[in-house]
Amino acid sequence: MLAKVEPRPSSLSDFPEVNEFLIELGLGQLDPDGVRARTGRNTNWLGHTSTGAAVFVKRLDGDPTDAKRRYARIVDLDARAPGISGALRFPTLLGADADRRLVVFEWLEDARSAAELAADGHFDEDLCHRAGRAVGELHRSGDALDRSSHPLPPTSVLRAMPLAMFQQARGPELRFWRILQQDDQLVAALDRLRAAEQTSSPGRPCHCDLRFDQFLRDGDLLYLLDGEEFRMADPARDVGSFAGEWLHTAIRQVNADLGEQGRLTHDQVVARGTAEIARVRPLVTSFWTGYRDSGVPVDPTLAERATAYAGWHLLDRLLAAASARPRLRAVDLAAAGVGRTALLSPASFIGTLGLAD
């Protein structure tokens, strides 16, 4: 396996507003030669300032209107921190500036992401239970300010892909989209999932981008990060995303010892995939137990909707992976079948996933 390459931080000389803002906050300034960066959609820097403060600075990039919305969601999520106690924790927000589109958080230097923990087998049932309680506590907190519809799943793209998106996509990604677009049953299932959020499901304040890298463990504490998509939504989105992360982890393990050129027969893929899903099922169940232990109200069809969202989450992760691969592998197509099953028949897949009562 290739070593993870840390991204090169953008030059602070190109963003003088960063140190200007840090100085205004009384935190000193970052040394351009001592900063690091994290992978993400936004320009960011982390390091120690001249006063010794450990900071993570993020500049919200992209369309200014959209960046303004994401900024507001981050601030809204953080605003509920003083009223929350228990399993839910956020890194301290040290400062935020809407005009500069900057947010400054404490940098938890020794923390490890749940993605790293899952990769080395240390994201255990206890941590999953605590993550479930944290998400449940978030869903019990006060209403989010943003009530706009979440853009995913992108049902419009399943009918017609925008030209700009088509031109930027690579061959394997286009092939995957073509498979999805030609599946009328799948498109209908995604339409139903989007409609349920608008008509039948009880909206709650949701993270709406719940991946393993949004959790950090620092010592005995577990933190939830990144409120850029925080809004009122179907709580099944968050529950399903967490379960979908474990589905994705299970599928990745099917080919883990073979490398990119490894080949498995269909029967081998199915056998390995079944075994890996069984391996992660107790972890999903621990999250689900923790979620319900938080005291959050759970409606009768939440587990079923969450299972469907887990199926979409797996397909979404596979689409992202396809954009970086030279070809689609047998395991990718098999994984798409798992996601499809969860979407089309969520009630029958609840137990397989680990969300049964």
Structural summary, described in words:
By secondary structure, the chain is α+β, with helices and mostly antiparallel strands. The chain folds into two domains: 12-107, Phosphorylase Kinase, domain 1; 113-353, Aminoglycoside phosphotransferase (APH), C-terminal lobe (Aminoglycoside 3'-phosphotransferase, Chain: A, domain 2, Alpha-Beta Complex), CATH 3.90.1200. It has helices at residues 16-24, 64-79, 114-119, 125-140, 163-168, 171-181, 184-199, 236-254, 266-293, 302-322, 330-344, 346-353; strands at residues 43-48, 54-59, 93-97, 102-106, 112-113, 204-206, 215-218, 221-224, 231-233. The strands form three sheets. Strands 1-2-4-3 form a four-stranded antiparallel beta sheet, sandwiched between helices. A hairpin with a 5-residue loop joins strand 1 and strand 2. It is globular and about 60 Å long. The two termini are 38 Å apart. It comes from Micromonospora echinofusca. This is Phosphotransferase enzyme family protein.
